[in-house]
Amino acid sequence: MSGHHRTKEYAAFARRMRPLLTATLPAPCVDGCGQPVMVGQRWDIGHIIPGIDEQWNVGPSHVKCNRSAGGSMGAAIVNAKRKRKTQVPRW
Ligand SMILES: [Zn+2]
Predict the structure, then answer these.
(1) Is residue 89 in a domain?
(2) Predicted TM-score (pTM) of this structure
(3) Do 10 and 53 contact (CB within 8 A), yes or no?
(4) Which domain holds residue 52?
(5) Ligand 1 (ion): which residues have CB within 5 A?
(6) Considering its fold, how many domains does the chain have in total?
(7) CA angle 22-75-47, nearest 5°?
(8) Which of these, 7, 32, 61, 71, could form a disulfide with 66 (CB 3.0-4.6 Å)?
(9) Closest alpha carbon to 38 in 58, 59, 62
(10) CA 40: distance to chain centroid?
(11) In this structure, is residue 19 part of a structural domain?
(12) How far is the CA of 79 from the centre of ligand 1 (A)?
């Protein structure tokens, strides 16, 4: 979980998405564990592409998937991007 997820805007977005995503259950976990998220299970709003808060980019993710694999993968992508930006082009 990043700082982004603690903003008021994200909280409002999550509140808006939850009932819409609940209506789609059971649905595949967006963090790619291969198991569906079932009605009655605890789940988080997971991002397909980290950092984009749009309805097309989010879906249900098991709490344990979202807060372990997905979370660190998102951080790795963000860190890799940051690294790439600071590299000097070789021409
Ligand atoms: Zn999962």
Answers:
(1) no
(2) 0.69
(3) yes
(4) 3-83
(5) 29, 33, 62, 65
(6) 1
(7) 20
(8) 61
(9) 62
(10) 20
(11) yes
(12) 23
